[in-house]
Amino acid sequence: LYILRILKEKIGERQIYPLYAEKISKLKALHLPQKYQIILNELENILKKKKNKNTTTDVLHKYEINLEQATKISNCPENFQILSYKEIESVALSIDGSGKDTIKDDALSVKREKDGYVLGIHIADVGNFIIPNSPLDLNAKQRYKSLYLADQVIHMISPAISKQYLSLEEGEKRNVISLYVKINKSGEIESYYFSAETITVKQNLSYYYADNILRQEITPPTELDYNLKLLEQVTSLLRNSQRNEFQFMKELIKEIATEENPYSEKIVSESMILYNSLFPKYLSNFSDIPTIYRVHDKPQIPNLSAIIADTNLLNKDLFTILNEYYPRAFYSLSNTGHYGLKLDTYSHSSAPIRKYTDLFMQRLYFLSQQQITVDQLKQLEQEAIDFVEYANRREKELKMFEEEYEKAYIKTFKPSEK
C-alpha cells in the first residue's frame, strides 16, 4: 500500500503515464504470482484514472513533447554553422501571416520574358545550418514539426534561433536553396535548376495586404504591384495546368466556405507545390542518393448510388465520406506518384524551419552535390530507410496528439464558453 501511494504521487507530479504503462505491461506478461498481479492491476487502475483526466499537460507528456528543452539548447555554438554562398541580387518578397512572430520559410521572385516567365522560389537553408546530430538537431527531429495548437505554438526550432538566422526577414541576408523555373505562356515548364545562394528579401507582406493589392483596393508602390500581379499570372497558369477532379472539388468547397477569396494564398500554395514536385524529381537524377517521396494512392471509390446505398454513411458529411474512401498520403523511398495533386513526383521540402522531413530533404540535396564513398552511401541508405519509418509513425502520433490536445483544451472552458 505504501509503494502504491508513493507511485500514485509520482504519477501525479511527473505525468509519466507512457513509461509506467509500458513497464506494467511487460511485468504482466511475465505471469507473476497472484499477489503481484493484484498490485499491477491496481497500478493500471491508477494510470487509467490519470489518463482519463487528460489535461493539456498530460497530453504533452504522453507524446513526449518537452516545452523547455529547445530554448535551453538553441544558442549553444556547437548546434549550427553559418556558411558562405554566392550572393544574388533579386527582387524577392515573402507572403505570410501577419503576426510579428511569424516564421518565414519561403520567398518568391519573378521575371517576365518574351515567351513566358522565370519564377524564383527561395526556401530557407536549414539543412546545412543545423549541424547533424547536434543537440538542436536531435531536439528538432524528436519534435518533428511545429504544432499550431489552440492556445500556443510549439516550434520545431526555437524562434530565438530561427528568427535571428533562418526566417526570411525583410532586409536581412539569408542562405536559401532557390529553384528557378522557366514557364511558358501555356503554363508548361521548359527548364529548371536549383541553387544554394544568399538573398535579401525586399519586402515581407501579409496575406491581407497582398490580397488588397491584388483586388486593387489599395495603391502600392509600382514595383510591388507589378511583381505581385506577375506572380498571380504565372501561378494561375500552373494551377490550371495540373489538377485533377478531386483537387478541384476540394478547392471549390474551400472557396465556398471562405468569405474572402485568398488570391495571395493561391500564389504561395501553387509555388510551394511546384517546389515540392521538382525537388524530388531533381534528386532522382542522382542514382546514388536516396529520395523520400510523399505518395498518395488512387482511391477505390464507388459510384454515388453505392454510397447512398451504404447505410453506414448516412448522416455523414462529404469530407467524412471522402476521408473513409481516400487513402492518406505517406512517405516512401519508392515513387508511385501523388494522386491527389495529379503529380508524378512530390515530397515535402519547402518548410524546413517547421518540418523535419523538409530539413532532411535539404541534406540529401547537399549530399547530391558532393562525392560520397560506398560506405557513406550504405549508411545514408539505412538512415533514409529508418527516417521514412520514423516520419510516418511520428506523423500519426502527432495527429493523435493534436486531436487529444484540442479535446483537453476544450475541457478548460466553462459550459457557457463552449
Quick description:
With 418 residues, this protein is of the alpha+beta class. It contains 15 helices and ten strands.
Topology:
Blueprint: H1 2-14, H2 17-28, H3 34-53, H4 56-62, H5 69-73, E1 86-87, E2 92-96, E3 106-113, E4 116-124, H6 135-143, E5 147-148, E6 153-154, H7 159-166, E7 173-184, E8 189-206, H8 207-214, H9 222-241, H10 245-257, H11 263-283, E9 293-295, H12 304-309, H13 318-325, E10 330-332, H14 356-368, H15 374-411
Parallel strand pairs: 1-8, 2-8
Antiparallel strand pairs: 3-4, 4-7, 5-6, 7-8, 9-10
What would you say this structure looks like, in words?
With 418 residues, the protein is α+β, with helices and mostly antiparallel strands. It is built from 15 helices and ten strands. The chain has helices at residues 2-14, 17-28, 34-53, 56-62, 69-73, 135-143, 159-166, 207-214, 222-241, 245-257, 263-283, 304-309, 318-325, 356-368, 374-411, and strands at 86-87, 92-96, 106-113, 116-124, 147-148, 153-154, 173-184, 189-206, 293-295, 330-332. Strands 1, 2, 3, 4, 7 and 8 form a six-stranded mixed β-sheet that branches. It has a two-stranded antiparallel ribbon with strand order 5-6. Strands 9-10 form a two-stranded antiparallel sheet. Strand 3 (106-113) and strand 4 (116-124) form a beta hairpin. Helix 2 (17-28) packs antiparallel against helix 3 (34-53). The radius of gyration is 25 Å and the shape is globular. The two termini are 40 Å apart. The mean pLDDT is 83.
